């Protein structure tokens, strides 16, 4: 039986909410459990309906999507995945909501297939970024980044292997296959990698790696 993904849609435009709900509702493995017209309502309804994924607009009244994402992710031991959807291809918005813990950042001009694929990706622990955003964020290196070896000295050999595969875009299952590990062991290593470099999720591992000159293992 196909796993069902419960989705909450937060957007201040009624037509946008309706359109996204139609796309999500048409997917055989998804259902819309609630819709919210602002960030405060998104926080309240997330606590009530406990969705797996929240589609979060960024610019909304009362509480914007960045603050709402932070409140949702900090408010429970088992938070949903946050997928930001916005009209604005804006690096500041992307950086702030990803730093708040969102697992993805897409523009609203994405296709229906792209949206449902992104929901599945973040639900299963992956990350999604709009291509234009990815390029700018990972090429925005700090002026004088520390040497990668100095940054990663506190990794074990296995953690460094896992780090490299995360940066390469591998899922937990793919990492497990490549390193001949149980997937639960991979999850443990991923958690340690996140903790040691001080980020909340895989997408920020990738951004951190490239901004600090650690995108590839020194050869």
TrEMBL record:
<dbReference type="InterPro" id="IPR000792">
    <property type="entry name" value="Tscrpt_reg_LuxR_C"/>
</dbReference>
<dbReference type="InterPro" id="IPR058245">
    <property type="entry name" value="NreC/VraR/RcsB-like_REC"/>
</dbReference>
<feature type="modified residue" description="4-aspartylphosphate">
    <location>
        <position position="57"/>
    </location>
</feature>
<dbReference type="GO" id="GO:0006355">
    <property type="term" value="P:regulation of DNA-templated transcription"/>
</dbReference>
<keyword id="KW-0238">DNA-binding</keyword>
<keyword id="KW-0597">Phosphoprotein</keyword>
<keyword id="KW-0805">Transcription regulation</keyword>
<dbReference type="InterPro" id="IPR039420">
    <property type="entry name" value="WalR-like"/>
</dbReference>
<feature type="domain" description="Response regulatory">
    <location>
        <begin position="6"/>
        <end position="123"/>
    </location>
</feature>
<feature type="domain" description="HTH luxR-type">
    <location>
        <begin position="148"/>
        <end position="213"/>
    </location>
</feature>
<dbReference type="InterPro" id="IPR001789">
    <property type="entry name" value="Sig_transdc_resp-reg_receiver"/>
</dbReference>
<protein>
    <submittedName>
        <fullName>DNA-binding response regulator, NarL/FixJ family, contains REC and HTH domains</fullName>
    </submittedName>
</protein>
<dbReference type="InterPro" id="IPR011006">
    <property type="entry name" value="CheY-like_superfamily"/>
</dbReference>
<dbReference type="GO" id="GO:0003677">
    <property type="term" value="F:DNA binding"/>
</dbReference>
<dbReference type="GO" id="GO:0000160">
    <property type="term" value="P:phosphorelay signal transduction system"/>
</dbReference>
<dbReference type="Pfam" id="PF00196">
    <property type="entry name" value="GerE"/>
</dbReference>
<keyword id="KW-0804">Transcription</keyword>
<dbReference type="InterPro" id="IPR016032">
    <property type="entry name" value="Sig_transdc_resp-reg_C-effctor"/>
</dbReference>
<dbReference type="Pfam" id="PF00072">
    <property type="entry name" value="Response_reg"/>
</dbReference>
């Amino acid at each position: 039986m196909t796993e069902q993904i419960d989705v909450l849609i937060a957007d201040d435009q009624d037509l946008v909410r309706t359109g996204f709900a139609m796309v999500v509702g048409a997917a055989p493995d998804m259902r819309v459990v609630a819709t919210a017209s602002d960030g405060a309502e998104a926080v309240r309804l997330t606590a009530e309906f406990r969705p797996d994924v929240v589609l979060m607009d960024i610019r909304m009244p009362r509480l914007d999507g960045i603050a709402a994402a932070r409140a949702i992710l900090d408010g429970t031991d088992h938070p949903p995945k946050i997928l930001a959807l916005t009209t604005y291809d804006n690096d500041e918005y992307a950086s702030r909501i990803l730093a708040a813990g969102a697992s993805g950042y897409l523009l609203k001009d994405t296709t229906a297939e792209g949206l449902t694929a992104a929901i599945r990706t973040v639900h299963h622990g992956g990350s999604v970024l709009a291509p234009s955003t990815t390029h700018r964020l990972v090429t925005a290196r700090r002026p004088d980044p520390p040497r990668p070896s100095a940054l990663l000295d506190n990794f074990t050999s296995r953690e460094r292997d896992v780090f490299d595969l995360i940066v390469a875009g591998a899922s937990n299952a793919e990492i497990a296959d490549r390193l001949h590990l149980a997937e639960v062991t991979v999850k443990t290593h991923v958690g340690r990698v996140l903790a040691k470099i001080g980020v909340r999720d895989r997408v920020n591992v990738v951004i951190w790696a490239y901004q600090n000159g650690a995108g590839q293992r020194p050869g």
